[in-house]
Write a structure and sequence with these properties.
Blueprint lengths: L1 E5 L9 H13 L4 E4 L20 H11 L4 E8 L5 H14 L4 E6 L4 H7 L6 H17 L5 E2 L4 E2 L13 E4 L3 H10 L2 E3 L4 H17 L7 E5 L8 H10 L5 E4 L46 H14 L4 H20 L3
Parallel strand pairs: 1-2, 1-10, 2-3, 3-4, 4-7, 7-8, 8-9, 9-10
Antiparallel strand pairs: 5-6
């Protein structure tokens, strides 16, 4: 199993100092990946949680590449129709090159109508634009200099360099089109579904992969808060219905009760369960308040990163989310998840 964490690239917490501290804490605590989210044009009456402030995800990942050494760098998810296909491929290749091959490309079609309008993109075309962009990305990462003639994008041969290995592509979305897209283009599927709804979809996805002759590793990526249960009976029922998965991404408030993602930490001697020297920074004051060092490594890390991200302006909200997180994880632990 692998564990990722979302770092805020939106709102007042998306400042240089807090983001650097979050990334350093995540890397130090042994998380496998960090993730940022994609919005470009937030309507003025829809700014709750961000104030309308969003850092561009690809620029943010390039910055994280220079601020970290080991942790993988993901976007959850890049809205493909918002950007030109060739430019997007070039930016992805650059991040992949400069990060030493650490990028994860989560890819989705988008949903916010007014954001599409602000960018001059027809929302009804989002599926076709996304598929074409994925074809262009796969084409360019597979060829040094070969032209392309698709339905929506055409270009003559040009040198695509640097050309590092293509980052793994996780297809976002919950419906049938997302499954088809994942089977055709993806190395993983990144849905936002409760456990009882996820299981039959995974079975359908496996059938689609088999029909295309695709085998080997394929990651099912579960975001925190999808299907979170807070009682023993409901948590146990979700556990029985949950399919296997290989990667979980935490937010700063919940964990996903998926079979295979036990909240139990490795032994205290493991790097994942240590926080040596973590209390050196004022912004990381939460490290001094750990109550669960020998219990849940995931909870330790998320407790720390909540306060790192919210230090200096949202302490009451951070405390509330910490209490909720502890309650949720305790419920899952009681259900032996």
């Amino acid at each position: 199993m692998k564990y990722g964490i979302a770092i805020r690239n939106m709102g007042p917490q998306s400042n240089r100092a807090a983001m650097r501290e979050c990334a350093a804490a995540a890397e130090r605590l042994g998380f496998d990946a960090l993730f940022v989210s994609d919005h470009l044009c937030i309507p003025p009456d829809d700014v709750e949680g961000s104030g309308g402030r969003y850092l561009d995800v690809l620029a943010a990942l390039a910055w994280f590449a220079g601020a970290t050494e080991r942790i993988r760098l993901g976007v959850s998810v890049l809205v493909l129709p918002y950007r030109p296909a060739v430019l997007t491929a070039k930016q992805i290749a650059t991040i992949q090159e400069l990060s030493g091959g650490r990028m994860i490309l989560g890819a989705g079609v988008g949903w916010m109508r007014r954001e599409f309008e602000a960018l001059g993109v027809e929302k009804r075309m989002r599926g076709r634009l996304s598929d074409e962009t994925l074809r262009v990305i796969r084409h360019l990462f597979a060829h040094d200099a070969e032209g392309y003639a698709g339905e929506l994008v055409k270009f003559p041969p040009f040198v695509f360099a640097p050309r590092p290995p293509c980052p793994p592509i996780w297809i976002g979305g919950n419906g049938a089109p997302a499954l088809e897209r994942a089977a055709e283009f993806g190395d993983g599927w990144h849905p936002m579904l409760a456990a009882d709804k996820l299981a039959p979809m995974v079975a359908e996805l496996k059938a689609k992969l088999a029909a295309r002759g695709r085998g080997g590793d394929f990651e099912i990526v579960c975001g925190a808060g999808c299907g979170l249960t807070t009682s023993r009976r409901r948590a146990t029922r979700s556990r029985r219905n949950a399919p296997p998965a290989r990667h979980i991404s935490f937010s700063t408030s919940a964990v996903m009760p998926m079979r295979g993602f036990s909240p139990r930490a490795p032994r205290p001697s493991s790097p994942r369960s240590r926080a040596d020297g973590a209390a050196q920074s004022d912004r990381a004051v939460a490290f001094e308040r750990f109550e669960f060092r020998r219990a849940f490594a995931q909870k330790i890390a998320v407790n720390a990163l909540i306060v790192v991200a919210d230090r200096g302006g949202a302490a009451p909200d951070a405390a509330r989310r910490l209490r909720k997180f502890r309650h949720d994880v305790d419920a899952l632990h009681a259900a032996n998840l």
